[in-house]
């Protein structure tokens, strides 16, 4: 599972995961330590203690807000998969500003792990966000560009992108319905 900075994952389902993210934002409980770029907080529906999962090796650690993050920092120093991804990462890091524009800085290295599923999701999001035609993925220039970036990435057909886009729309629609139902009840 891919994560964004400061993400919170519920062990129940995807919709409750997104609800947990919103609740965390509403409560203004932000993670300030940079170590959270490499860990995901897992909250359980029952009274079980929260866990922090390493995004690189999937190892889980106990997490209490009062305990701090020293044990997470120590783990990163010994995590072999983190060392591999850090060694591969470029010196160019991208950040999104408030307008969702990408800003490039050269002073930070970002750990990166390739995920074909994440790349496919990002492709669908790009098609939707930039209002591109579904046939864009079949254009020769785009296919050549993707092949140069990642030769083993299999670009989906326009029909598959259309299906994924409709699924994305339906998921977002269900998510909003769920939030509204929780607010009303």
Automatic annotation (TrEMBL):
Record's protein name: 20013_t:CDS:1
UniProt keyword annotation of Cell cycle present: no
GO cellular component: nucleus
Lineage: Eukaryota, Fungi, Fungi incertae sedis, Mucoromycota, Glomeromycotina
BED-type domain location: 30-86
Zinc-finger listed as a keyword: yes
Pfam families: zf-BED (PF02892)
InterPro entries linked to this entry: Cuticle_assoc_protein, Znf_BED, Znf_C2H2_sf
UniProt record, GO biological process: regulation of transcription by RNA polymerase II
GO molecular function terms listed in the Swiss-Prot or TrEMBL record: sequence-specific double-stranded DNA binding; zinc ion binding
Record key words, sorted: Metal-binding, Zinc, Zinc-finger
């Amino acid at each position: 599972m891919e994560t964004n900075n400061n993400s919170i994952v519920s062990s129940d389902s995807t919709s409750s995961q997104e609800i947990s993210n919103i609740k965390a934002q509403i409560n203004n409980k932000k993670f300030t330590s940079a170590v959270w770029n490499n860990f995901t907080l897992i909250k359980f529906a029952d009274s079980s203690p929260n866990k922090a999962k390493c995004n690189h090796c999937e190892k889980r650690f106990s997490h209490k807000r009062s305990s701090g993050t020293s044990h997470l920092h120590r783990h990163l120093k010994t995590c072999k998969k983190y060392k591999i991804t850090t060694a591969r990462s470029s010196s160019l890091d991208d950040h999104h500003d408030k307008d969702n524009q990408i800003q490039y800085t050269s002073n930070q290295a970002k750990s990166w792990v390739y995920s074909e599923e994440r790349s496919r999701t990002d492709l669908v999001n790009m098609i939707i966000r930039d209002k591109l035609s579904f046939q864009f993925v079949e254009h020769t220039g785009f296919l050549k560009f993707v092949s140069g970036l990642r030769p083993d990435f299999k670009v989906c057909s326009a029909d598959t992108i259309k299906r994924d886009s409709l699924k994305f729309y339906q998921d977002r629609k269900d998510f909003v319905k769920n939030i509204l139902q929780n607010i009303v009840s």
